[in-house]
Structures are given as structure tokens and as C-alpha cells.
Amino acid sequence: MELRHLEYFVAVAEEAHFTRAAERLHLAQSGLSASIRALERELGAPLFVRSTRRVELTEAGRALLAEARRTLASVAAARNAVAAVQGLLRGTLCIGTEQCLGVVDIPAVLSRFRAVHPGVEIRLRQAGSSHLVEEVRAARLDLAFVAISGDPPAGVTLTSLTTEPMMLVCHPDHRLTANEAVDWSQLEDEVFVDFHADWGARQITDRAFAAAGLRRRVALEVNDVHSLLDFVQHDLGVALVPRPIAYKRKKNVRVLPLRATPPSWRVSVAVPTDGPTNNPASQALLGIVGDSLPLPVMTAPAPVPAAT
To answer: What's the rounded Cα separation, in Å, for the pair 158 and 294?
Structure first.
């Protein structure tokens, strides 16, 4: 079994299409198809169910996909280790991030990294935190900057960078602005704007309402911070967001703390449990991140007025 056959197999599995996979690999489709057939003959099992529009993995293909990704990741780690001994950093560094995490200036960090290590190709993916953590677990990302609550899945380690309180944002003329702080019970009948379910902030809010025994109506779901604030600004709903997002727009929205102890939004870096010690490029990037963080890293929650 050749490594290139595994690379070709993973590309077809991820694209679910031979033509797109061939374009991604800069190969002729006939050559790609021949390589996949050769791999299937060697393994003695079909890996794909082929149709005119798309291809789908068979049960054998699904079993191979996870192992193929791990094998390719291990090979990349071995190459990186040799390069590190030679004093070089090469290869590809795949990272992910959720929007507007605040504590890490991703463009600035990547700019510094590229200036020091121009031989490393950087690939960035932006998505919700749950999805990104799963991508790290499956070895499709080397590391990710995420905001999730609870324990990570097996195979992923989280290192906390900062913790922020959740805060309410609403229109300046909203009825709740008569309060200096808001009780949970005052939010039960509100219409909410919120992120999609795989965003860290959404999961934290859902769990907080469930823990309080309160129902919540999310009428508008968005996938970016600016859209959420736009809807709140036009009085189409209220939102619970982390403090860095709450103060992202200083005009046309009002920010209110929660009177009870607010749930915490924790920003972490997610890495494979066996890394980034096996990935010198990841280590170098995290070194730059550490140098850029303010001290102390952990931040205290905003003070909340006492109940009257």
C-alpha cells in the first residue's frame, strides 16, 4: 500500500466526487480512478459506492478513512521531526478558529509565524467550536482556537487561554434597559438571536437556560458575530454573548450584566492529545501565541450589581 493511494482515497472521500478530487490533487481523473481501483483490489473490498453525481463511502471505506487520516498525519509528523532536527520548519500547518475570540489576534499571530517560518504553508478554517474540535480529533486540523464548555472528546486536549462572562445585548430602547442588571427569569419570554448550535457561546447559553429550568425561543440563528449584532441593533431580538463580543459595537446596542453569577465562556486551544510535541510547526505557533497573550492570561468576570 502506497502513501499516495491513501492521499488519493482521502481526497475522494472528502470531496465525494472523483472529478473534484482530481482537480484538488492536480491529477488526471483516469489516473485517480485507477489508483483507487488498485487500492480496492489490494484490500479486497470496495471503498466507494459510485454514481453519476457523487460517490459515497462503503462500510469498509468508512473504516479505512479514519486510519488513513491517522497514517498520513503520522507521516507528516515524522517529516516535521526530521526537519526540526535539521533546524528547518517545512510542510503544512492546518489551524481552525471560531470568530471573534478576542484573546488571540489570529491575523497578527499568523503574520509573525510566516515571517519566521516562510517554508510552512498555513491553512486556516473558520467554523463553530464543536466542529473544529472534531476536526482536531480526526487529525484534519493540527490545532484550533475554540470556546467550548465541558470536557473535550477523547484524543483532544484543551489548554485554557482566558475566561469571560456572558452578557446580555439588546436594543437601547428595550424594556430591560431600565435595569442595571438582568435576572434569568426576566429573559424567559424574550425572542433571542443566537449562533448556530455548534458555536461555543450558543451551547453555553442553552445549558444555562436548561440548568435554570427556563425555556428559550431562538427565532434568528446566524453564523457570524456582525449579523447577530445587526439584528439586535434593529430590535429583532436580544442575545447572550461573551463580553468581548458584547462590547464589539459601542453604538446602538445596550450591554447588561446578569445579576446571578453568569456562565463562563472559556477560550482554549485544542490540540491532539499526543501533540503538539510531534509537530514542531504547532509548537512554534503556540510559542508566538504565548508571547502575544497579556499577563495574567485568565481574566476576572465583570462585577455584577447586587440585587435590590
So the answer is: 19
Among positive and negative, which fits the CA dihedral 175, 100, 134, 276?
negative
Q: How far apart are CA 94 and CA 207, in angstroms?
A: 31
Q: Could you tell me if residue 231 is inside a domain? A: yes
Phi, psi of 227 (to 5 degrees): -65, -40
C-beta of residue 98 within 8 angstroms of C-beta of residue 200: yes
Residues 122, 102 contacting (CB under 8 angstroms): no
In a domain, 297, yes or no: no
44 falls within a domain:
yes
**CATH (domain of 46):** 1.10.10.10
Q: Residue 171 corresponds to which cell in the numbers above?
A: 436594543
pTM of the model: 0.65
Residues 6+ apart with CB under 8 A from 141: 94, 95, 96, 125, 132, 135
Contact 122, 113 (CB under 8 A): yes
Q: What are residue 162's phi and psi, to 5 degrees?
A: -165, 160
Range of the domain at 58: 3-67
Rounded distance, CA 23 to CA 60, Å?
Answer: 25
pLDDT tens per residue across span 209-263? 998 899 999 999 998 899 999 999 999 999 999 988 888 876 789 999 998 778 8
Distance CA 25, CA 170 (A): 48
Rounded to an integer, what distance in angstroms lies between the CA atom of residue 295 and that of residue 188? 38
Is the domain of 178 the same as that of 231? Answer: yes
Q: Does residue 153 have a cis peptide bond before it, meaning omega lies within 30 degrees of 0?
A: no
Quote the radius of gyration of the chain (alpha carbons, Å). 23
**Stretch 194-208: mean pLDDT:** 90
Q: Are residues 128 and 176 in the same domain?
A: no
Q: Pick from 20, 272, 282: which is nearest to 132 by CA?
A: 272
Instruction: Compute the average pLDDT of residues 34-46.
Output: 92
